């Protein structure tokens, strides 16, 4: 075999080896699957081994084509992979131009080659590179990177076979990059599809997507549940089959069909409707076209939401609003977040009460109703309550738009948001002019009656005492009867005064300790009636809600049980029973029982009739004290063996 034949054989073996290496790289799993980083390691190691280069590296251009970045560099001497080096086009214009205009660059002496010598100072000399063999990566005619074979420590001339192999390696890198980007796109599409499915399933609305040709694309579980469709109920390929099933469930199928036909004729239109379902539910139906940025129509998206509860809440809210608007008392709402707390709402009754039209009410503080004779004390009380963010009730002399006066019972209460911050104040206004005038007249009549009655009865009593001292027999007995009746009548005037004060002042209930409220009247009755057996049973350690005169009511009932008992030593027990939210006070006596008229007085069913045994006034006093204490009073039992009266009071510590 001649030397030429041996050279040809070597070239043939080299070519065979190059082809096999390229084939191995093309079919490499990492290259095929697009595992780009792993593929680059295989490619650069194989290229360095086959060509016998010191280093092989892969570089990629940035999007602007002005910068090359090394993504993998394999050094055969150290078996290491590195990367990250960058070359900027402005620093090496000749080299970058050569890459753009040549398939490959074969530079035996890279430091003098006009295409690569710009790299000498910054790259070739620091790394000891003498020779370069670069093969460009191209995609649709554009250079996107380069595979660089470097010889360190000596120069070498690259053979045609090596140059061809370098180009094949560049093609393999391009294939790996393309497969990598395709895999990334597939992963991105899969991610988007999975995300879309997850979003659809997470939505509170039912979702249905129908293609432009009527084909069914996607839906979520919520859509199936809303329409009670089984999994195979969405199997038909046509979306209109599903819409037909919906049509059969709505209360107005004809209107639904007309709406679908309209959207079919107007595919670019968005719709928003409400559907009444045959099982009583109400659905909100939203539909919008699915289009590309260029305006191509792909289909239609349907969203279904169950708004039954919302509709019920709206109806309830509308009812409440109508109730407030039509309430027989004035109702206002002010905005505490604005300066001077202006009114933002007033109902119709407030307009009628004050004579001001709504446009002159809103935006103003409610003090515009005050005038020359409005007392400062209740105004200050109301302002202090607002400053302290608490409710309060006062009675004010206010003025209507026509300047006429009226007495206004005003209640103001704070309204807080979910964070506990007061945002508004609700006000209730009631015209109490008639009651105020009636109370004033009642007080005047009471003062006149009490003064005249007390004076006249004192004269009658004094005369009767003189008569009793100077006479005897029947005349003396009659005189003593006059004195007793006069004393009883004077006692009634005291109770009458208490009732008048109670009804005119109407004190506000407040927390009261139950223990002294029970023990004091028991002790007082024992002192006044030593022959009676007065006991306190149960546990009085609680706090109840009541008015300050509540103790008077307990005392009155204890005295009533003692005085009207028909035994030599009457027995009366005050029994206390604590419950979670209330306290029961039972006054149990062993007397002859209460007449029906007196029972009706206590329970509030009685009318003003001639009083029985002088007891009626006291029982009325008890009734009103308990009522104003927000309690109730009842006769549990009464008869010849005794009476049990129960007072039920709300607990303040419950």
From TrEMBL:
GO molecular function: transferase activity, transferring phosphorus-containing groups
Keyword hit for Nucleotidyltransferase: no
Cross-referenced SUPFAM superfamilies: ATPase domain of HSP90 chaperone/DNA topoisomerase II/histidine kinase (SSF55874), GAF domain-like (SSF55781), PYP-like sensor domain (PAS domain) (SSF55785)
Source domain of life: Archaea
Membrane-spanning residues: none
PROSITE patterns in the cross-refs: HIS_KIN, PAC, PAS
Domain PAS residue range list: 316-365
Keywords assigned by UniProt, alphabetized: Chromophore, Flavoprotein, FMN
Official protein name in the record: PAS domain-containing protein
Residues annotated as signal peptide: none
Residues annotated as domain PAC: 269-319, 392-444
Domain Histidine kinase span(s) in chain numbering: 448-653
